[in-house]
Amino acid sequence: MTILWLLYLLQAAYAGKITWQENWMLKERCNAKGTGIWRLSNGSDWHLNSVQPPTRFAANQVNLPFAVALSRIRETFYYEPYSKVIGPEITLESPACSGVLISSRHILTAAHCLFLNKEFTCKQSLPLRKLTAQKIRVFLGSSRGATWRDNEMVEVASVHVHQDYDDVYEACRNKTSNDIAAIELKQDVRNSPICMPKGNANTPQNLVSIGYGKYKGDESLQAVVHNKIFKESAIVAYTKYKNESSIAGDSGGPLIQHLFGKHYLVGILSSFVIETVTTKQGQTVPTGEVSSRFVDVREHVDWICEKTGVCPLPEGSEDQEQPSPTASGWLLNPL
Question: Can you list the domains of the chain with their CATH numbers?
C-alpha cells in the first residue's frame, strides 16, 4: 500500500496535479476570507441575500482572491532595410477572459478563451488556432490595486482543453456543455482558491458572477447578480438589461454561490446572448433581457479531478482528521 501511495504522489507531481494531502486540505483552505457582503462602487455594502440586488457593480478584490484575469501576449516585429528583424516587442493585451483559482496552481476558465477567434465565422471550416502556454499570462485577484494591471502576474506551465470541446462549431450550435479548460501555473500561489461544489448539489438561486470585462472604461473586477436562473443543458441566468449583464472579458469567470461563510464555484461563463422575439410582422426585436450561459462545473468534477488533482472527497472523509499542513506543502498564511 505504501508503494502505491508513493507512485501516486510521484505521478501527481510529474503531471502537475496537487497531492492528495493538498486536495484534502482544500476544504479548510478554500476562500479563507469568504464573506457574503459585497462592497459596491459607491462605497456602500450589499449582502447577497438582500431583497433588492444592485446592477453590475465593482467588486472588492480583497474578498475574492480567487478571481483571475487572463491576458494574451502580443509580439510585434519591426523590420529595417534589407529585411533585418528587430524585436519582438512584447505587449500585454487587456484581459480577453477571466478565470477562477481552484488550487494553489490550477485555474479553470472557458475553453474558447484559449483559441484565437478574431476572424471566426460560423461558416469557417478550418480549426481555430489554440494558444500555447507561453502566450498566456495570469493576473491574480488581490488587494494590491483596483485593476487587473496592479495584480500579481504568473506564467502558465500548461493548458488542458476538454477533449469534447468543439473549437469550431461550439458557439454556432449554442452549446456550452464542454466549454471548459484547466490551466496549470508555473508556480504555487498564496491566494486562497474558491471552494469546489459537490456533484449532487441542486442549482441555487440568487448567484453572483464575477469577471474582468471592461465596463464603461472601468478595468476593475466587476460582479453581476443573477436571481433568475434555469438549468438546461447549461446553467442559464437572465438579467434585464445589457448594462447589467455579463460582457466581453467576463468569459471564463466563475458563477458563485455564497454558503456557510464561503464562496462555492457553480459554473464557468461560456457565452451571453441578447434575447429576441419575432413579431407578427416577422421582425426580430430585443426583449430587454440578456441570457448568460454557464458551464455546470458539477458535471465536470471527474474531468477536473483527472487534470488537476482537485477531487471530491469520499463520503464521510470530511469529518476525519486532515493531514499536517507541513506535510502537504500548503502555506499556513493564505491570502
Answer: 2-328 (2.40.10.10)
Nearest partner of 237 among 206, 263, 212, 211, judged by Cα: 206
The per-residue pLDDT for range 36-94, each reduced to its tens digit, is: 556 655 566 666 656 555 567 777 777 788 999 888 776 544 445 444 444 444 455 66
Q: In DSSP terms, which residues pair with 258 in a beta bridge?
A: 263
Find out whether 175 and 233 touch, Cβ atoms under 8 Å.
yes
SS3 letters for the chain? CHHHHHHHHHHHHHHCCCCHHHHHHHHHHCCCCCCCEEECCCCCEEECCCCCCCCCEECCHHHCCCEEEEEEEEEEEEEEHHHEEEEEEEEECCCCEEEEECCCCEEEECHHHHEECCCCCCCCCCCCEECCHHHEEEEECCCCCCEHHHCEEEEEEEEEECCCCCCCCCCCCCCCCCCCEEEEECCCCCCCCCECCCCCCCCCCCEEEEECCCECCECECEEEEECCEEECCCEEEEECCHHHCCCCCCCCCEEEEEECCEEEEEEEEEEEEEEEEECCCCCEEEEEEEEEEEEEHHHHHHHHHHHHCCCCCCCCHHHCCCCCHHHHCCCCCCC
pTM, rounded to two decimals: 0.79
Q: Pairing mode, if any, of strands 57-58 and 67-80?
A: unpaired
How far from each other are the two terminal CA atoms of the chain, in whole angstroms? 36
pLDDT digits (tens, 9 = 90+) for 40-56: 555 666 666 565 555 67
Task: Check: CB of residue 106 under 8 Å from CB of residue 184.
Answer: yes
For residues 239 and 56, give the distance between their C-alpha atoms in angstroms, rounded to a whole number.
10
In degrees and rounded to multiples of 5, residue 306 shows phi and psi of -65, -40
- Give the Cα separation of 307 and 111 in Å (integer): 14
Q: With beta carbons less than 8 A apart as the criterion, state whether 213 and 164 touch.
A: no
Whether the CB-CB separation of 100 and 108 falls below 8 Å is answered with yes
